Amino acid sequence: MANSNPDIKYTQLFINNEFVDAVSGKVFPTVNPSTGKKIVDVAEGDKADVDLAVQAAKAAFQRSSKWRQMDASARGKLIYKLAELMERDLHQIASLESLDNGKPYMSAVYDVYGSMNCLRYYAGWTDKVCGETVPSDGPHLTYTRKEPFGVVGQIIPWNYPLLMLAWKWGPALAAGCTIVMKPAEQTPLTALYMCSLVKEAGFPPGVVNVVPGYGPTAGSAVTMHPDIRKVAFTGSVEVGKIVMAGAASNLKKVSLELGGKSPLVICDDVDVNEAAQIAYTGVFENMGQCCIAATRTFVQEGIYDAFVQKATELAKGRKVGNPFSQGIQHGPQIDDTQFKKILGYIETGKKEGAKLETGGVQVGDEGYFIEPTVFSNVTDEMTIAKEEIFGPVQSIIKFKTLEEAIERANATSFGLAAGIVTKNLNNALTFSNAVEAGSVWVNTYLAVSNQAPFGGYKQSGVGREMGKEGIEEYLETKTVSIKLPSKV
């Protein structure tokens, strides 16, 4: 069950199936966002440690290695066993996630199940990665092979530490790659615990390596390393651009899942209570620290006032507090930097003329808690309607026609997700076809699944995660042509 003071066994780097100190001997603190106090010191990796991790990953990827010689089906069984071990240790992992990230314990449990299911999904893919025969010209047998890239670098964020690990490990391992991962410096504890399960499951040494550390040092070393063939990053647009520039050093393949300013369009033909609930979930999930959060809530003028009233009521009723307390729906923001940034956006919203309906202030006198916040009378040119806040702030914007809403929804450099709530099928299809976003949800929101590709348009990303497309991001295509005596 929930344990607000879980035993923390793993705080070192994980390289070649062993927990080791950083070469420099440095450590850094990981902080409990509910209190602002240090949980524990973690080994701080940098370039020297990334070099050692890549060396181990390269050795594990040699043609004669145990990993490369393993049957694809056996690789799937290993991934599945990892998920089984996660289920065994469910409450320990969820407690670590809740402690380190601040999300309510039951949300952390949900994330553990989601991560297990992601790994199980990709465990089933290992022996289903197939090439094709090609009807080429001339007397040739031509076929394609799908081959793993090799050593891949992965950099994950702090908002869904365990889920983002599974989203990265699952397809990379299914493809047959080896991994060097840098978890977010704010939330390294569950990644390190997962390393202990990797070893217990029986993965060969060097297949999975985890180097906690900071972005400008450990993260940069991953993106710049000449022996890493592909880098996958989830995080901000700003850092995504840095990763892409670093990857150009040896023309690594890059996949980026970046930020968003996602529109949710509420048409006037819906039940206001139901629509407000969908929007409420879409914006306040994970304390608003969600790249697909529906932070631009467009509401048709005929139901605008009623919607604002209901949205305000829902936000006021959201229970904020210690993530290990029963019934809590809303924990703290991740750290002091994010806390101050969000409060700054709220002040800007007020100064620029938006109407603060509820929230907007700190809760309690310790930790990084912010009341769920609702603004009405928001216009497109306001800062809170344009920039990604990454916090519990709902901006409710009025519109007249669907065509107008589509144009305004698309007037952004982001394109990660979008949604519409309507009873009109024509409205749903018109919006879904016209909006510039990688995921579109109709009469629901946050409907992400392991089977469906996920990623963004425009500056919200490059490539896709999840589904068949997710594993393809870790595969090269090789074409083989063999001359035959005659055309057959």
TrEMBL record:
Keywords from the named record: Oxidoreductase
Domain of life: Eukaryota
InterPro entries: Ald_DH/histidinol_DH (IPR016161), Ald_DH_C (IPR016163), Ald_DH_CS_CYS (IPR016160), Ald_DH_CS_GLU (IPR029510), Ald_DH_N (IPR016162), Aldehyde_DH_dom (IPR015590)
Signal sequence, renumbered to the chain: none
GO molecular function, one term: oxidoreductase activity, acting on the aldehyde or oxo group of donors, NAD or NADP as acceptor
Key word Oxidoreductase present: yes
Active site: E257
Stored Gene3D superfamilies: Aldehyde Dehydrogenase, Chain A, domain 1, Aldehyde Dehydrogenase, Chain A, domain 2
Aldehyde dehydrogenase domain mapped to chain residues: 20-480
Family matches, as CDD domains: ALDH_F1AB_F2_RALDH1
TM ranges: none
Family label: Belongs to the aldehyde dehydrogenase family.
PANTHER family: ALDEHYDE DEHYDROGENASE-RELATED
Protein name: Putative aldehyde dehydrogenase
Lineage of origin: Eukaryota, Metazoa, Ecdysozoa, Arthropoda, Hexapoda
